[in-house]
Amino acid sequence: MKPAFSVIFLTTLIGAGQGLLIALVLGQFYLGSESGGFFALGGVLALVMLGLGLVASVFHLANPQRGWRAATRWRTSWLSREVLMIPALCALAFLYTLIHAIGWAPVLMTFGNGKTLDLPMALGLLVVLGSVALFVCTGMIYACVRFIRQWASSWTVVNYLLMGLASGFTLAAAYAQIQANALSGFMSGAALVLTVAALAARTFQLWLNARTKPQSTMKSAIGLHHTQIRQVTQGFMGQSFNTIEFAAPGGAETVRGLTVFFLLVAFVIPAALLLAGLPVLAFVCQYVGLLAERWVFFAAGSHVQNLYYQAKG
């Protein structure tokens, strides 16, 4: 498939924002109901990432003025659910940020062991649930496309979640180090673990895709059942929508080269930089690698129509 750069930036920016929100909430629980400016400014940073992702998404719409219609099929469409979840998460993140900024932390519940649940922590739990739900919605947009075998797997959802968490926690580690916050070590350690986990999961999906056999054949692609079918021409004197939008730019060699690139730049090198205590460089490197990873994810998707429109080989 031909990757759309607007969707590449949408998914990576929003994924990092979601991961950062989850990192902030877990950091809050790690410190024990901590509140204050660190979490408020972190919430602003997460909102900026989410906002930039929304801006990028507009460039993917042929008619932006009709974009609201994408939310009307929420009963059956994962895309509609994603469209609804993004502003819902933004609203929760804004409230979470505002509550921390003004320092309002009324106790909502007291448990038998003496522990309490205040408003910032309650909002934090809702932010985590909203972020995870958005990860699932985004991943399922592609995992439910059964005729693209490289996407139609539960590992697509797992990888969207793990890579978003890895980038978000790496961003949180960079932010904590710049702010000289006590959470710097916690965020860096969690980012390292999540980066390694994302590397393992993405590598496993690549291995599965390499072993996947297509369910469709030339016979089913053209609707004939002759025992011997061979292609002698592509069927076009020049390029068409079908031969451009459903083919990987640069061909299989480019996909293979960028696969090696993103495995190193999105996972291996950032892990080394985190171990070296350089989370800022780790995030910059990782984000560049995740842009390449998302490009490969879309480019490696082989649409069944390519059986019919493939070039003569």
Describe, in short, the structure shown.
With 313 residues, this protein is an all-alpha fold. The protein has a single domain, classed as Formate dehydrogenase/DMSO reductase domain (Formate dehydrogenase/DMSO reductase fold, Up-down Bundle). Helices cover 68% and strands 2% of the residues.
Task: Characterise the protein shown here.
The chain is mainly α and 313 residues long. It has one domain: Formate dehydrogenase/DMSO reductase domain (Formate dehydrogenase/DMSO reductase fold). 68% of the residues lie in helices and 2% in strands. It is built from eleven helices and two strands, in the order H-H-H-E-E-H-H-H-H-H-H-H-H. Strands 1-2 form a two-stranded antiparallel ribbon.
Number of DSSP-assigned strands? 2
- Tell me the helix content: 55-70%
> What is the strand arrangement across the widest sheet?
1-2
In the CATH scheme, what's the topology name?
Formate dehydrogenase/DMSO reductase fold
CATH homologous superfamily (4th level) name: Formate dehydrogenase/DMSO reductase domain
Cα gyration radius (Å): 22 Å
Number of domains: 1
Structural class determined from secondary elements: mainly alpha
Supply the key terms:
single chain, 313 residues, mainly alpha, Formate dehydrogenase/DMSO reductase fold, two-stranded antiparallel ribbon, 2 strands, elongated
